[in-house]
Structure formats: structure tokens, C-alpha cells
Amino acid sequence: MLNHPAILERVIDPARGNFPRSLADAVLNFGFPPDDLQQYKELSSKAQEGTLTAEERAILEDYLNVNDLLMFLKAKARASLASQIPAA
Question: Is the pLDDT at 2 greater than 90, yes or no?
């Protein structure tokens, strides 16, 4: 897992909505493919049970890192789209 996700958050600056609409829309469509999502869920369950192997733990950490990245990018995308809504 990221030891310091706050660094990634500062780099991406998700509150600053400065993505163009096309990029924001594209980022909101990012996500794990179904097979990866299933593996992620299975590894998460094994982690909660305390039955992960060292190799499985490394794979789960990769999934968690990608999930952190997606979370920050999607937050920035939503902030970008919200900032582009014309005032009424």
C-alpha cells in the first residue's frame, strides 16, 4: 500500500477541478475490469480472514494502490465537472 497517500493527493490536488470536460468524463469511466474486481474482492476477503500468502498480499497492495489513484483522479474529475456548470 502507499505509505504516504497524502503525497499523491497533493500531487493530483483533487479539489482543484482543472480537467477539461473530455478528460473528466474519461476518468470517470476508469475502473477495474470484472475479472480484476473479482480478484480484488477475493484477496480483500482473505486479508480480513488473515489467510493471504506473501504473493497475494503483494497483489492486493497493487490493487489498493491503483484504487487510491483512481479515487483521487475521480475526485478531481467530479470537481472539474462541477466547476464547469454554468451559474443559474
Answer: no
Per-position DSSP letters for 42-79, written without gaps between them: HHHHHHHHT---HHHHHHHHHHHHHHHHHHHHHHHHHH
Closest CA to 56 of 75, 72, 39, 73: 39
Q: What is the mean pLDDT of residues 16-35?
A: 97
pLDDT, mean over the chain: 93
How many Å is the Cα radius of gyration of the chain?
16
Q: How many angstroms separate the CA atoms of 18 and 57, rounded? A: 35
Which set of grid coordinates corresponds to residue 34? 470484472
Contact (Cβ atoms closer than 8 angstroms) between residue 71 and residue 7: no
- Distance (Å, whole) CA 25 – CA 7: 24
- Average pLDDT score over residue span 26-42: 98
